Amino acid sequence: MNTLGLLILACAAQGANASQLIHEKFDRAPVVFIGISTQSGSASDPEGKSGLANITGDLLIRGTRSKSKAEVDELLDRMGGKLEIATHLDSLLLTGAVLKSQLPAFLALLTEILEKPAFSPTELVKLKKQTESQITVATADDGALIKRRFLRFLFNEHSYGLPRDGRLADLKTIQIQDIVTEYPRLFRPEAVLVGITGDVNATEAGSIQKQIETALAAYQGAEALPPTQPALPHPATRLLLVDKPGRTQSRVMAGGVGWTLNEAQQAAFGVANHALGGGI
Fold first, then answer.
1. What whole-number distance in Å separates Cα of residue 254 and Cα of residue 162?
2. Under 8 Å CB-to-CB from 176, ≥6 apart: which residues?
3. What confidence score (pLDDT) does residue 34 get?
4. Which of 3, 60, 91, 246 has the fewest Cβ atoms within 10 Å of its own Cβ atom?
5. What is the rounded end-to-end Cα distance, in angstroms, of the chain?
6. What is the mean pLDDT of the chain?
């Protein structure tokens, strides 16, 4: 994740909204970067619907009411643009990058995606199969498996322990109506933060922000997702053993409940993490 993405996530965690724009001009290259963050993520998935936020985000960029996924991909390729979405525990982060000369065309496509997502049943079937396949493959990988099991063990019943891409049984229950209901709750404009950097001045950045807010205006006042309660550390050391017969080596993972994105000492923690090798 780039610096802009980290800054957006940190501000979103502190309750910022779309009326607060993060902008930094950087005109050494004729490129514009745009980030849009929600204030809820996979930790707010409803009971029995783990993976819903992740599926909603991935399906969002798979076409509009007038453009198929293939047409969206072709337009992005033609303008040399990039549009990606990542699911985090407490946010969805939609990021895009494009040459300054192609910014009007890119914004037209981005706002159409936000305002008129297709949420195609056909694409949902494909996406669920892909996600299920990824989860199945992950269970065969020792590194991915220990991470999933460790987080569940660490956070116990807290939603932070659920995998962001969901559990197989829960994915099978997710339907289009779940996504149609969830999307306005995630992307209501009063709970969205916009970050812009690159070859744009403050006036241009404000105009971009306004176009994004206008695209999301229909979701103004949508029901808010319940806030995620802080995860509490365990009072004593615990041990989890995941037995996989036939393995010739073991994987070891240790850890505890860490800091939140709105922690006042987050910058100091980041420096310490870097000094210790970046593995915290």
1. 18
2. 119, 121, 124
3. 96
4. 246
5. 16
6. 88
